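Appendix B.2, paired examples.
Example (i):
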Amino acid sequence: MERVLGVPDAARTLDEALALGVPAQEYGIRNSAQYLAARHAVFDDRLPPARRQLLELLAIAEREGDPEDLVDLWRSLCEVDVRLGSCARALEWADRALAHSAAHGLSPGPAWYTAALAQSVGGSFAEASRLAGRGIQASREEGDALYLARSLWVRGCVRLHTGDGAGAAATFAEVARLEGDRPVADPSMFRWRSDAVEALTAGGHTDRAGLLLAGAEATPGIRGRGPGTVAALVRARGVLLAREGRPDEAVARLGEAAAGFRCAGLPLEEARTHLARGRVERARRRQAAARTAWEEAAELYGTTGARPWREVTAALLDRLPGGRPGDGSRAGGLTPSELRLAGLICRGASNQEAAQQLFLSVKTVEGMLSRVYRKLDVRSRTQLGAALAPDR
């Protein structure tokens, strides 16, 4: 509750609870200090340690826990894997939570929400919308404002990502009304505001979007929250700047946001930011820059298994002049992103330097470079330079 209310002593209180050494299963794992510590790690974007803690608690729950313990742990693991970009695993956790909730007569709203969230990254937007609708109905019937807001959030995001700006804005207006009734001072616990800003902007409500964003940015201690929370607000500011006719500032903010998500280890959010940057570049007729941004997004969506997002990105690339590249018409069938990387490497850039210039992670650059080598049948940077000399 201290964290909900923004009391700065929340971490100290949790440490005191952990120091008591009460076994996690003593009063129900979902009520334990150990589980709360894992949830705080999720809020702070410390996702790998959060996942380890949750898996340790899951092992205990499978031996000594009750059905609610298992469902809460599976739902938390789903949330973590969604944010880590492990889409297939997220779907598995969500399916378990949904089936177990139904089998044991537990409140269905939270499980429907979790299933909708997993589908929105690893399944289909249509199924995510359907499941969110089930969650909305169940939560309304039970008077559960907490999960009603969350299911509405998923529905609003789906509408935003599928081009229904007006519908998304209306959905987020309801989320705002629900959240306005509860004094939650920590925006990292439910990250709806940045998405609402983007939805309002897409729906043409820039004044309302600006007021909401300014309020979120002014939250006391916002810079000390999870880095993903901050990066999402920076992205929202970039989207709003683009709508206000300030594309240079917008691209700069979106580049900053992408770097923030990359440092936080949030690949799906990074990729979504590349999509936004590509839209800004296309709007000002910089087709090559738009293609590069969308290919960077496609690369991340491909490695994470984000099926609906791959489809969105492919459709954007198809609409660019010349359609999608990579059909063998270029050197060795290299895509423009691969050609750009190869050019940087040939000019002496290290993997780290190339990653910075391409707004990618070093790991992604290493994978791309391996594919370049394989396509061109070369084994070194010197051979790469020789293979591409006529094309450069």
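Example (ii):
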Amino acid sequence: MRIVPRSLYGRLLGISAITTLIALAFAGVAIGRVLERFVVRGLDQQLDAETGMLARAVRPDGVLMPGRIVDLPAFADAEPGWGWRVDSPTRHWVRGDAADVPPAQAPDGPGPRRHGGPHPGEARALGGERVHLRSVTVATGAGPVTIAANAPARIALAPLYEALVPLLTSLAVLGLGLAAATALQLRLGLRPLRRLAGSLGAVRAGRARHIPADQPAEIAPLAAELNALIDQNSERLDHARRHVANLAHGLKTPLAALGLALAEEGRDPDGTLGRMVARIDAQVRHHLGRARAAAPGGGQRVRTPLGPAVADLAAVLARIHADRAVTATIAVADDLTVAVDQQDLDEMLGNLLDNAWRHARGAVRIAAVRADAVMVLAIEDDGAGLDEGARVEALVPGRRLDERGDGHGFGLPIAVELAELNGGTLTLEPAAGLGGLRVVLTLPA
């Protein structure tokens, strides 16, 4: 299981959630401590008053004088959990529900009579109730005397628990508010990255030439580098395209002249040299097509209707192959369009439909649907079809699987490369419906 999310949004949200929980926990503990001290302070004042009164009732010889004892109302009523005790080295005095207190050592410092400040503590009273106590040690001639007064712990805990419920509720609401604010902040803060991805997609699809330069300061350098990379690739592509086009044009004319010379002078009686020249000419036309496909108006794609292109080519092929009586079924909506140059689309469809007509026994089916951002065109025939190995061989330039006719084995490879240059794909599959070959061409919608 991956602990760190892949997305920046998930990472930032996780870090914010962890830090917010830590901050809220710290705030809850700190506020709870403050509330506890505030609530317990009043109870401590009562206990300190009682221990102070008892300390004044202890004689210098360590004996408690009952006549000086004046109990506070809570101690006088002897309610559960309320009580006090005085422990000298020789005697013990207990009143009410007093708690056991460990003996204390005599406080430091000179003088026959000194006492330390009150000390808080928690203990169990004689009745078993949990109590909160305050103790003080008085130095006498007979030794240290420990005085302790206790009260029920519930008196301090009950208000504290009452205060903790709204406190925790408030912290929970605060945490939810912070989580919502963090999510909104991250959503708004990362929006420029999503816009940058959309702008880059528009450049890739040909709808824009560059990424907009108006970007936040943190993203502006990235956008500038991407635009520089786009320009550099465009220049290199233009250079390569011109080089290929010049080379192809330079070879096309000599090849045409060579073909005419062979035909006129009768130097190729069996047509071998003519077929070689024709194959070389097909390769030249193939590379010219690639060079033309790589230059769709300086990177700007056009909107080409798919239905009319399919209908026109089907009508032409029906006349060319009129002797074969092939019936074509076309299911292409008129509103379907592709982001491909008209000439590129005609060349791809011409090669694919011509293959379907030449190899079909009597039926060709053409259908197109849009799937998100791509257009999927399927061409099926009821011919003999191709096995898996033959389907791979059919896409190799110059490889002919059927030696009949005047083909040169470049139709499918040209269609594949034109599709890829325009951001699409071409695959060959068995035609489940008609039993022949199914060609699937995907192009940007």
